[in-house]
Amino acid sequence: MQQSWLECIRGCGKRYSIYDVIYRCENCGGLLDVEHNIKALKRRTAASWKKLFDDRTRTNKWPYASGVWGKKEWVCPDIDNENVVSMYEGHTNCFWAERLGKEIGVPDLWVKLCGNSHTGSFKDLGMTVLISVVKQMIADGKPIRAVACASTGDTSAALSAYGAAAGIPTIVFLPKGKVSTAQLVQPIANGATVLSLDTDFDGCMRIVQEITADNSIYLANSMNSLRMEGQKTVGIEIIQQFDWEVPDWIVIPAGNLGNVSALGKGLLMMRDLGLIKKLPRIACAQASHANPLYLSFLNGYKEYKPVEAKKTLASAIQIGAPVSYERAVKVLRQFDGIVEQATENELANASARADRAGLFTCPQTGVALAALSKLIEHKVIKKKDRVVVISTAHGLKFSQFKVDYHEKNLSDVNSLYPNSPILLPADVNAVRKAIDHAIGK
Questions:
Q1: For the purposes of burial, counting CB atoms within 10 Å of the CB of 50, is it exposed (0-12), middle (13-18) or buried (19 or more)?
Q2: Residue 295 · residue 307 · CB < 8 Å
């Protein structure tokens, strides 16, 4: 019996194998989603699924110790275990941001630290699935020469690392001068063919789609639904970490919109299989310099227009024509979701404020935290609510952003929490005086 397949998201009924090299429906041009045989999965009770998933968090048995492959039956059940390419991704901690939560008005605030992963971002969750399927396809005789992606940084890091582990050549298209040094060096170090194009992400995305029309070069961007099968486990993992209780809100930064689509997909699967009885509300957060989803939300999704994304500190979501717009709107409608935006000043200060409470946030997480503060201020999110913010990448990938903030070198940003090093002579009295001034006598 077929356990999973690709199906058009527009409901035209067209199906394909997950091992077909195809990204859009041949009938109507819609994107494809992986669908699962829910009837077969229902043969196991909800309690049994919970026990199985909990047990696998305490094992090193291949490949089930991975936070993604521990849910293999829900992700990619037909793949041979020997073709799974995993770095034991997932199982990232949900940080209780108690101090920050009290400061902004929601004491039950948690931050899911997806950046505590092999390549430093949530992209690992999806890339383990995609590269594993490609390895299976190659083993089955498909003539795939390489895997390629357009990226604002994190996707290229994940693709190059997993491709290197599998021995599969990778090609990454990066917008010149628009990714951090830390993000640029990752695919270089992993041996990818790095193409720095004089355009933005949307321009890179147009070109990579043309290049991957050659079926021997496989597309790894989030329009490829295999990525979302791994990324959907973040929502499952969050609820598992709360002993299978559903938070009131999940706030997530939004760029190409595959992440929010995947989040909703995993949560809906949990509901359909009886592991949860209710759904959280989802809040998408966009940078005001790259906000097509936010603008569409304002008119009830009646109209959607791509925008020319302007430079933003949240470079990973500097995307004006998100590929997964249709998917995201479908999810937001099912989750009574909302969309908020953050200015450069708001996102930078939100990130810095979080850091002062013990976090070390990327600017995209700053966007989510700034949006959260606005939703609290507008009384959309209440003081009693349990809120989980998804932090998509590690702050160390954006160290120059941190340095520039604290040295007050960011345009359009009034640094409210600067903390530059204090330059002193090597004199004990000068040191004592500086300490007394900083922390009091």
A1: middle
A2: yes
Q: Could you tell me the residue range of the domain that residue 267 belongs to? A: 94-118+228-406
Strand ranges for 271-351 from DSSP E: 281-287, 338-342
Q: What is the pLDDT of residue 30?
A: 87
For range 180-209, the mean pLDDT:
92
Report the residue count for the chain.
441
Task: Tell me the residue type at 405.
Answer: Y
What integer pLDDT is reported at residue 409 of this predicted model? 96
Bridge partner residues of 16 (DSSP) = 6
**Domain-located, residue 165:** no
Domain count, the chain: 1
Q: What is the pLDDT, as a whole number, of residue 1? A: 62
The answer, yes or no, to whether residue 310 has pLDDT greater than 80, is yes
Q: For the chain, report the end-to-end CA distance as a whole number of angstroms.
A: 73
Sorted by sequence, the CB contacts under 8 Å of residue 71 that are 6+ apart come out as 53, 56, 233, 236
Mean pLDDT throughout 111-123? 96
Tokens 């990818």 — which residue? 192
Q: Are 67 and 39 in contact (CB under 8 A)?
A: no
The pLDDT value recorded for residue 372 is 98
Cβ 328 vs Cβ 342: under 8 Å? no
